[in-house]
Amino acid sequence: MINILSKYMSDFTLINEDEQRAISESLQIDEYKKGKCLLRQGELSAVKCYFVLKGCVRQFFIDESGKEVTSNFFTEEQAIPIINEQTQGDLSKYSLVCVEDCILVVGDIVSEKTMFDKYPQLETMIRKMMEINLGEMQEQFGEFINSSPEERYESVLRKRPQLIDRVPQHQLASYLGITPESLSRIKKRINKNKS
């Protein structure tokens, strides 16, 4: 697991191996069971961030009609962004729940600032990682609003195929903005066309 973090430090910084080891040893890495709620919609926003070493975390919200709407899934080597400092004390607009047993790096603003003071290149690394994440999210959103449900599903097949078998189908359908029945029909049509 630590190899994943070392890879990012090597790719995005000039931090040497001894410093990488010291950083890795000082990180908080926690294990969470499937179903563990990391953050609940309507509760005070915790100022935490996570980096997924293993597992899958679902981001969702309950809309005005009481329906769960899945807005994202975070899997290995993805950061779950920190709540902005300016929103401290605000109520969370979404929930984060472990879809699988997870191993996560857990960060908070205080420990993050301490690490940045000690290893300034870490801040650059985090910024670059967040720029990549933001770019991917913008691309996904743009693609999502300009595509049909079938095209959205095909995009998941191409870009995030692991989600197909790892998350419940009703959650995947919600993520795609369709009903589970529509997802089932799309899957049948695509499988038929492949035959």
What would the keywords be for this entry?
195 residues; alpha+beta; Jelly Rolls; four-stranded antiparallel β-sheet; 8 strands; globular
Give an account of the 3D structure.
The chain is an alpha+beta fold and 195 residues long. It has a domain at 2-119: Jelly Rolls. It contains eight helices and eight strands; from the N terminus they run H-H-E-E-E-E-E-E-E-E-H-H-H-H-H-H. The chain starts with a helix and ends with a helix. The model has no long low-confidence stretch (mean pLDDT 86). Residues 31-106 form the Cyclic nucleotide-binding domain. It holds the Pfam family cNMP_binding.
Main sheet properties: 4 strands, antiparallel
Task: Return the CATH topology of the domain at 2-119.
Answer: Jelly Rolls
CATH architecture of the domain at 2-119: Sandwich
First-residue to last-residue Cα separation = 39 Å
Order of helices and strands: HHEEEEEEEEHHHHHH
* Strand order, largest beta sheet: 1-8-3-6
CATH homologous superfamily classification of the domain at 2-119:
Jelly Rolls
Share of helix, binned: 40-55%
The count of helical stretches stands at: 8
- Average pLDDT works out at 86
| Class derived from helix and strand content | alpha+beta
Give me the Rg, rounded: 18 Å
Shape: globular
Low-confidence stretches: none
Q: Strand fraction band?
A: 15-25%
| Text of the CATH class of the domain at 2-119 | Mainly Beta
Total strand count, please?
8
Protein name: Crp/Fnr family transcriptional regulator
Organism: Ureibacillus aquaedulcis
Domain Cyclic nucleotide-binding: 31-106
Keywords: Activator
